[in-house]
Batch of 2 targets.
Target 1
Amino acid sequence: MEFNKDELKGILSELGLVLTFIAVITAVTMVLMA
Amino acid sequence: MKTQRHATSLEIICFYTGFVVYCMSLLMIIPLLTAIVYQEWNPALDFLVGISGSLIFGLTLMIFGHGVQGSKSDFHWKHGFAVAALSWLFLTFLCAIPYRLSGHNPSWLNSMFDVMSGFTTTGLVLTQDLDHLSNALNMWRHMLTFIGGQGMVVLALTFLVKEARGAYKMYVGEGKDIELLPSMKGTAGQIWKISLIYLVLGTALLWVTGIAIGLRPDSAFLHALYIFESAWSTGGFAPNTQNIMYYHSVVYETITILIFILGSFNFGLHYAMWHKNRRELTKNIETRSFFITSSLISVLAVLGLSKLSVYPDALSAFRRVVYNVLSAHTTTGFGSIYARQFAREWGDFGIFLMVIAMLIGGSACSTAGGFKGLRVGIVFKGLLMDIKKLLSPERNLRSYTYHHIKNQVLDDAVIKSSALIILCYVVLMTIGTLLGAYYGYPLSESAFESASVAGNVGLSIGVTTPDMPTLMKIYYIFAMYLGRLEFLSVFSLLGSIGGGLRHLWKRTSKLSYSA
């Protein structure tokens, strides 16, 4: 199974976007509960 | 000149169903090896019986349909659907053999319930005393949910030496319909590649976190592997009764959120992202739909529960409310509160929001269930299209599109088929709700559990227990099966059986008339 640089960038983009979503939803929760 | 004979429909269906069963039975070798490593001799024997039974059954079917090889076979859509639907049915029984023999399930029905729950990545459990299961059975439970998420037909296709005729039809029959590469074997290979790379990354991350929170390294590894398999396949199984609460760690919980959200994405989306099409994640109609609906439901749930003063601070609201909403929306089913807390603490507003989240589900052609963000997006866009058409002076001249991997035309046929599938899910959930109400469960609890089953989620409000009525267990098995295969394969199988019986009836009547 080959694994190249583009695929690694793809994984990092996916992880980055989902982590951003989790961070945003956490921030919204903090605001709502403040 | 010798003419090639045509294989019959029965031969085609038997051969390929047998092949899928054969491939799955070989996988039982992994829990068997686990049993040997951990010196669990009784479970090893259970798996030996399971492997033998499945191999004999699979090979018998293949021998019965061996006429397919070397003959002309016209592989129609009905064959593909029948192979997918029958493989799932037969395997539900065969894979239940080690469950039944383990002593943790008092009946075949309970064993088959848990296997169907694993295959369909639902995650509801009837197996008793989860905390004392053998390593072999735990390995098997989590493998079932991982393989179920990928699809058994997808698995079998990767074993094929060369491209099979009708491979695409079998693949679609399993509720997946995206061609990543021109060949189906190549597409199946890509699906496995994506999942296996995330398996290595996710397991490593959970393993390190497990050690950091105090688990023994070997135990942390097994927990990491099981939890990854469950999270990625949006299954919801865990190796203990407390589910995700067992770990008492916000970091562990956050990693699982990351994995189950990624698992709920379309394999086509992963493939696009990995092949330089990075904007797909923000452009795709179903990821947009997921981000909007999950954020909206999370916000409403936090607002509703803060009004009831159930959770005192933001951290507990995130860990108990947002976590469960995201788990429900991705149809994972990991629970960060006990089942009865939904009934006692969340109130009707919270329960209703969870029902909506569970029914919407994740992405099409992913490991997730529900009626899918893609269909929600299409129906919503279709509604906007109709309103625009009414207000626009050009009326029907303008064409509308939506973006899902590529730009696609939004026409009435697409909207109608999406709306029909959504309707089927709502009917499936409504029947389950009525059945629960008939047996005396409160309506909201019955609706919660029924949505969890129809959407292949696995969160429970306490209805699913070993002593629930038998009819409800049977209906839940059927609903999980229908929900996972997205109706088409099962309806097609039932249609084929009905057509076959009618044909047989006509032939018998004709023979008796002429006699």
Note: Helices of chain A lie at 5-33.
Target 2
Amino acid sequence: MNVIYVISKYITVIGSVLKGFWEHLICRMLAIPVQDARYLQANDLCGHVEHDFTKTKAKTFFLCFLPSVMNLIFGWEMVAAGFLGLFKIGVSATSLIFYVYIALLYIGVSLLNNTAPLYEDALNNWELIYGKESKSNIFVKIFAFIPSVWFIVDAWLEKNAINLLAYIVAIVVCIVL
Amino acid sequence: MSDENKELNTTEGVDDEVVDEAVNPVEEEAENNTADNWQWDAAVPETQTDNITIDELVIQAEALDNEEVTETAEDEATEENVEAEETTEENDDDDGLCIVCGKPRKASPSDLYCEECRKKFLRTDYGVGHIIFAFVMVIVVALSYFIFASTVAIASKVNSAQELLADARYSDAMTACEEAASEASTINTGINSVLSAINQNFASKDWFDSGKKLDMIYLEAYVKTISISDSGHDSFVSAVESVFVNSDDEFDYALLEKSGYDEIKNAYDFCSQLSEAGTEFTSGLQDFVSYNDDSSIAMDYDKAMEYVDGLDAQTPAQKCMTDYCRFIVAYYANKGNDEIFKYFDSICEEAGEFDYLFWQTYMEAAYQNEAYDTALEISSKVIERNPSDTNAYYYQVESLIYTEDLDGADKACEKLKESNPEGLDYYSLKANVLRRQGKFEDAVELCKEGIAAGEDAEIYRQQAIAYMLLDNKESALEAMKQSYDIELTNAYSGESSNYLVETLNTAALITCICDDETTYDEIIDIFESEGVSLNESVQKCIKGEITFEDIFMKGTGEV
């Protein structure tokens, strides 16, 4: 178990739970059996659900893609609102909206820190589409390339809590500047 | 029968068939190939073939075929054994049992669960808490979209104000700041109108704020444009005091000191002293002011000067203000330029780095008193400090026209357009220059461009003058009426205008020449109600003492 990973997931608890929920929802929509639906647990499954191993390309891709996109869309506008309000407009602490912007920034970062699929799912997606025995046609390979690379990179970053660290550094830089 | 016997029998059967098939072609070949036509050297070129008979060859061929068949059977048996071993290894990893209940998976499509467990896991419960949480989050996201959109609307105005400040377009930057503040106010009004339906306590809450950054942009732009002429120093002091407030919403000078905006702080210090001195000193001057029959101001020069000389001025700001009072007295007592400018030079010396506060007044006074060289000198200083100051460009262009430097005036117009590309003043000033150059049609066309960019009373007035000089009275009257209407609408809505008197005088003149008696009478009524008379040049032109060209081309008298 990666302790840093679990800590990062607990810090961004809102995003972790929501990501787990989206994964669960997508698993049910795609008829993938879910054995463990505890979204928060002190192990590598934190922020995810334990599900049956997916064998088809489409199921694997969408299981990786859809929950990530949900958190990504929701997270970006919250982070953008918080960033603009706090750093571009420079709302002061005497204003009520200041605290709303802080909350939005936290929730937004929390959601953006939980956009990656499970590392195993990301690798499985790559193997099914680009593996030696894969028979994917060229259009699928082209279409899925960037998301598939993103799944793996994002999952690796998230696994090592590097993206949370990057968000924290970015916020500190904005405060200093 | 045992499996071993089966395999043996199968192998024997295969052998017999293979042998039969192998012998038959050889026998056929043997029958076809006789010793006479057999090509011995081609078959085995380095072998002695003299002592070999056909019978011996047939026996050797049979033996060779038997060996090949045996090898093939052995290879097949080996492959089967390898496959069997692999299958056994796989079965060691996957015992075919469900990982949850331990029962055989049978025909379950899952690699892990039996059909029963799989069906159960396909409907794993979300949990009520998680559903409520997700629902709340969706509401939060919807609200945050509204906050995001509102914030973007304010931030875009802040950004544009920041860019204008960087481009030294201070007046435009201040306007953008006011627009951003107004945007925040509009959003707050919208929210409050919705929420007040639920609870009256929300009727006047400030939810959104245009932010501290915007306040600082506003002050940074303001400090470049302050002028004592329109009590700008008083407004600047109020603006600073409204920004640097503590938690009790009161002005805190320590916050201003800590802010690091030295230019704003120093300007505030000087302006606040000037403001105090101004209130104290100028109030006493009211006693020496009287009004002439034509509503113009008259000043009792000697008494007023005696009063000003008696004022106790210690600080530079107070000394500036006493000299400013002397200028006011001299100006309204119609003293000569030498005396007026002497006070201004003294003010600028005492004000030091804050002499810019008096430049606008100095420039206007110089222009009014026809000291065009002085007006040009000061307008250049104003433009250097605030490159988009349209007022300074106006006095510069007008002064250049009166000094008959029309090329210089033309260049000044182009500089105005460069520094203030969205401003409408360029069109009216340039049309004025073109008209003076005798390019009436160009002036009309430029005015059309200006009207397309944004309706402005002065552009219509310039167009009307150009039409009159082209002897197109119909178009001139139409344009002049447009100008008059816009100017009146602005005046009634409280908008200040530099051209109101000029517009009314020009409108009176053109409507009189074009026989539009209704509008002319309306204008005369306005003048009478304000206790003001028509411009002297206009009166002379109406009487026929001078021509329209004399006023607008030769500069014998502006309106």
Note: The longest helix of chain B spans residues 54-93.
